[in-house]
Amino acid sequence: MPALEQGTSRAASLESAASLETVFAPVRSLTAFEETVDRLGTAIRLGLLPPGTRLPAERELCAKLGIARSTLRQALIALGQSGHLRATRGRGGGTFVAEELPPAAPPPSDAVEAWRETCDQRMSVEVGIAALAAERASAEQTALLREVVDAIESMLEDFPAYRQADVRFHIGLAEATGTPRLVTAMTEVQGAMTGLIDLIAHPPEVLASANAQHRRILEALHVHDEVAAAKEMIEHVKATEHILAGLMPGEEA
Amino acid sequence: MPALEQGTSRAASLESAASLETVFAPVRSLTAFEETVDRLGTAIRLGLLPPGTRLPAERELCAKLGIARSTLRQALIALGQSGHLRATRGRGGGTFVAEELPPAAPPPSDAVEAWRETCDQRMSVEVGIAALAAERASAEQTALLREVVDAIESMLEDFPAYRQADVRFHIGLAEATGTPRLVTAMTEVQGAMTGLIDLIAHPPEVLASANAQHRRILEALHVHDEVAAAKEMIEHVKATEHILAGLMPGEEA
DNA sequence: CACTAAGGACCGACGGCTGAGCCTTTCGGT
DNA sequence: ACCGAAAGGCTCAGCCGTCGGTCCTTAGTG
Question: What is the Cα–Cα distance from B173 to A123, expressed in whole angstroms?
């Protein structure tokens, strides 16, 4: 019994059942509370909000986020209990990112199972962003990214520091496009990748090679060569994918 | 008075205020009802669900979508009132996509204002997908896409038909990656673009030129050349962007 | 004519989110 | 030493969307 019937056979050869599965896929939207925990937690874990950073006051932040203060507090309390935030009361107090972040929790097994999808999503986001960044990056932005790449050179032995600067580089590319939406997309994708990347070993040689790719991407930005930027980014993403492929469980069922 | 204070100045040169704005941007998640209307409405308008298509029975569909039947019905009723769906009762009845779709509603002015962001999002999604598709497309998938491109050749005078086949091509690329998430992303981005594309004129020469780009992308899939696919897709997206640029209001404030 | 598969309608319960008010702590200034 | 401002901490009533049942109506099929 077919789940769906075409009224006529028009354009039948152009239709595909695959895309219909996605049309009828579950719609599950996160609650405001969950989304807030997610956003702030990811920003902290990615180093976008470094330890010691003071968050805006609750009354101010809930306005920016467009949620009620009670809801925001639920999220802040959750992040406090998980060790990401500390709060101090009284005048001059506030909510601060913890100096000692909790160890990264291992990602849920279903997220690990879907690692290839996550890599695909990364490919889909990063390559286009690299092209746009190459088209638009200002001299200042390029210079800033060069500083990041240079700084990474001295972090090849310290993976957490490397990874944080790596995230800065990729988010910096998104910022160079001038489109906030893309910064958000990049942040999400980097957050999703972090859990996977943390699972595997990172010898300095691998990090050095990755940073060499960063440098080639940067070079493409410098001369505003979109195709070259895309090409190098494809290589960069595939490199990560290949490394993961060696250490992950078999393909998804 | 700074909204946010760094505890120390560590890594200050790597920090950027731009990305923080996105961290604290509003979190507004759609309700299940809204998201359902959106999903089904977009699928219908894009031609993914052609006129006359019978949707799965309500009791079945709400299970697939992971929502209650009452919620689904709200969405179906809304789409019925807007003329996208018709329902017939009794055994053998069901909910069908209307044979005569309502005229496309003009997009809200704020969506038009943000047209450049939408194009950027498209670039970000499409280029990576083109690269992945080039890596993975099977011979069957390539052949299917070729049929679409060939069929488009005879639609250069009929814009609605052209646009529908165009959407099939781009979604077909996403399907060729084998990652459902990317099909969803592509569907969303095509839905967002449709409103903009409808605003402007489309002489056959422009459509022919666009389809020539389709053909070059296809050629890259055929020989599994990811970089070429990305390159041609960049051109393709930029072409649309340039056409829009001529007819849109000035840059965003 | 009975059965069945479909849409159509209703309602009570629940949970998340809102908005507002009030308390407590701490610092700066007078 | 006091007061006021600025912050987090707490509570509660109410709204709205969602759930998940139950029952009705319609219309083909055997």
Answer: 14
Distance of A78 CA from C22 C1′ (whole Å): 23
**Is the CB of B244 inside 8 Å of chain A's CB atoms?**
no
Q: Which chain B residues are closer than 8 Å to A131 by Cβ?
A: 123, 127, 230, 234
Chain D nucleotides near the protein (CB, 7 A): 4-12, 17-22, 25-29
* Beta partners for residue A88, in sequence order: A94
**A36 touches B at CB < 8 Å:** yes
Q: Give the H/E segment covering residue B216.
A: helix B204-222
Q: Indicate the Cα dihedral angle A102, A107, A108, A111, nearest 10°.
A: 160
Q: How confident is the model over A17-72, as pLDDT tens digits?
A: 677 889 999 998 899 999 999 999 999 999 999 999 999 999 999 999 999 999 99
Question: Going by DSSP bridges, is the β-strand pair B94-97/A85-88 parallel, antiparallel, or unpaired?
Answer: unpaired
Contact A51, A43 (CB under 8 A): no
Q: Along the 253 residues of chain B, how does pLDDT read in single tens digits? A: 444 444 443 444 455 667 788 999 999 889 999 999 999 999 999 999 999 999 999 999 999 999 999 999 999 999 999 999 999 999 989 999 999 999 988 899 999 999 999 999 999 999 999 999 999 999 999 999 999 999 999 999 999 999 999 999 999 999 999 999 999 999 999 999 999 999 988 999 999 999 999 999 999 999 999 999 999 999 999 999 999 998 876 554 4
Facing B180 at nearest CB: one of A7, A22, A48: A22
Q: Is residue B171 within 8 Å of B189, Cβ to Cβ?
A: no
- Whole-model pTM: value is 0.92
Q: Which of B5, B21, B230 sits opposite A230 (nearest CB)?
A: B230
Nearest to A3 by CA among B183, B65, B171: B65
pLDDT (tens digit, 9 = 90+) per residue, A193-235? Answer: 999 999 988 999 999 999 999 999 999 999 999 999 999 999 9
Query: What is the torsional sign of CA A34, A37, A39, A42?
Result: negative
Residue B251 DSSP code = P
Pairing between β-strand A85-88 and β-strand B85-88 as defined by DSSP bridges: unpaired
Non-local (6+) Cβ contacts of A155 within 8 A are A161, A162, A165, A207
CB B119 within 8 A of CB B209: no
Nearest to B22 among A131, A184, A230 (CB): A184
- With CA atoms as reference, the chain B residue closest to A57 would be B3
From the CA of A36, how many Å to the C1' of D22?
Answer: 38
* Interface touch A21/B234, C-beta < 8 Å: no
